[in-house]
Amino acid sequence: MSARRFFVDAACSTGGDVALRESDARKILRVLRLRDGDRIELVDAAGSVFEAAIVVNGAQVRARPIAAREPPSPPSLHVDLAQAVPKGAKMDFIVEKATELGAAAILPFLCERTVPTDVGPAKLERWRRLARAASQQSGRSDVPGVEDPLPFQALLERFAGYDLVLLAWERAEAIAARERLPQLLAGVRKVLVVVGPEGGLSASEAETACERGARELWLGPRILRAETAPIVVLAMLAYAAS
C-alpha cells in the first residue's frame, strides 16, 4: 500500500480525524481516485504507522485512524548524504533517489567547483517536498531532512559526528568496493557519504577531507556523473547493510 501512504504533522490516535495536506488530498481524489471510506496508511509525527479510512467532504479530505500497525525495524546503518549542489534540476533527482535508497538526511554543500546557482527558500522547499513524496512512495516511515546548503569548511566540521565518512572520489586508490567496504563498515553505525560536483572535488579539498578523517572510496574505472555517484554509493551501503 506504499502508494497510499501519507505523512501528517500531528500525533495520531484511533477514534479521531486528522487533516491531510491539500496536495495529498488532490492525489487521493484525482490520482488514486479513492472514495469516502477507502483505506490508506498514515505516518504521524512520531513515526507511528496507522491504517486509516478517508473521510471525503467535497474537495476536503481527512483521515480517520483505525488501527496502529507494527512499526518497521530501524535500519542497521544510519547513512547521511552530503552532496555538492549540481547544476540545473539534477538535485531534484538526487533528493528523490537518495530518499528511496534510505538516506537519513541530505546535506547540500558548496565547494570550489560548484557552478554558481541560486539555492533560495523556494528551491529548498521543493527539495523537501520531493523528499516527502519519495518517502511516501517508497514506504518509508520517516522523511529525510534536507538541510540548508553548507560551505565546504562547515561540512568538514560535521565529520566528527560520524563513525565513518566515505569520500567518493575519482582519484581514490583503485580498490574494489566489495573488498574495501566490509573492512570500513565493521562496527560502524553512522556514516556520511560525501559526493562532489560535476567537476569533482579539487585535490586540495579531497586532501583536507582525508586529513579530517574521511576515507576515499573508488567507484570503478568509469567517471560517474554527479547525480549517479551518490546513487551508486547508497545502493552499495544498502546492500552491505542488508
Could you characterize what this model shows?
Helix content is 32%, strand content 25%. It is of the alpha/beta class and 242 residues long. The strands form two sheets. Strands 6, 7, 8, 9, 10, 11 and 12 form a seven-stranded parallel sheet that branches. Strands 1-3-4-5-2 form a five-stranded mixed sheet. Helix 2 (90-100) packs parallel to helix 3 (121-138). The protein folds into two domains: 2-69, Ribosomal Protein L25, Chain P (Beta Barrel); 78-241, SPOUT methyltransferase, trefoil knot domain (Alpha/beta knot, 3-Layer(aba) Sandwich), CATH 3.40.1280. The chain is built from seven helices and twelve strands. The model has no long low-confidence stretch (mean pLDDT 90).
What sequence of helices (H) and strands (E) makes up the elements?
A: EEHEEEEHEHEEHEHEHEH
Helical amount among residues, as a percent range? 25-40%
Which percent range describes the beta-strand content?
15-25%
Tell me, briefly, the overall form.
elongated
Rg result: 20 Å
| Residue runs with pLDDT of under 50 for 5 or more positions | none
Topology, number of strands: 12
Summed up, the helix count is 7
What oligomeric state do the depicted chains represent? Answer: single chain
Find the CATH superfamily of the largest domain.
SPOUT methyltransferase, trefoil knot domain
* Integer average pLDDT: 90
| CA(first)-CA(last) distance | 22 Å
CATH level 3 topology of the largest domain: Alpha/beta knot
CATH-level-2 architecture of the largest domain: 3-Layer(aba) Sandwich
**CATH C-level label of the largest domain:** Alpha Beta
Number of domains: 2
Q: Would you tell me the structural class of the helices and strands?
A: alpha/beta
- How would you sum up the major sheet? 7 strands, parallel
